[in-house]
Amino acid sequence: MNADKQTCGLDPDGTFVELAVEVFQMLADATRVRIILALRSGELSVNHLADIVDKSPAAVSQHLAKLRMARIVATRQEGQRVFYRLENEHASQLVTQAIQQAEHTIGHPHHHRVAPDRPARAGFPETV
To answer: Which helix (H) or strand (E) holds 124?
Structure first.
């Protein structure tokens, strides 16, 4: 079992720990988190992202350049326009988990509530 943790980088002494810290540092910016949340629905242009996150296109472009260098986002060019998308699902999952963890600071988080047509998860009350 310990060998499995080492091969996938989950060993506390593993080589990926420092890289993971760099990923967290990259995501430690509200604008970048908002960009990642916006890109969950698919690729978007800089101008569309700027409207969504309420920042200037120049500021969003700078954030996207950093996210691109970190291989969190990828691009596709169509004429003069550049469209951005998430490189993979991992950044989205990290941000989702961080938002859900943040919900715990305000009490019973929304993500633990269960809709009437869904079964309750073990250990969580059936609320909506």
So the answer is: none
- The CA–CA distances, whole Å, from 17 to 8, 14, 22, 59 equal 11, 6, 9, 30
Q: What type of residue is 32?
A: R
pLDDT of the residue at 119: 52
**8 Å CB contact between 60 and 82:** no
104 to 76, 95, 100, 107: CA distances (angstroms): 37, 14, 7, 5
Note the Cα 123 to chain centre separation in Å. Answer: 27
Question: Do 53 and 38 meet the contact criterion of CB atoms below 8 Å apart?
Answer: yes
Residues of the chain with pLDDT under 50: 1, 121-128
Report CA 89 to chain centroid distance, whole Å: 8
Cα distance between residue 119 and residue 111, in whole Å: 14
Q: What is the DSSP string of 37-53?
A: HHHTTS-EEHHHHHHHH
Determine the 3-state secondary structure of 104 from DSSP. Answer: helix
Amino acid of residue 95: V
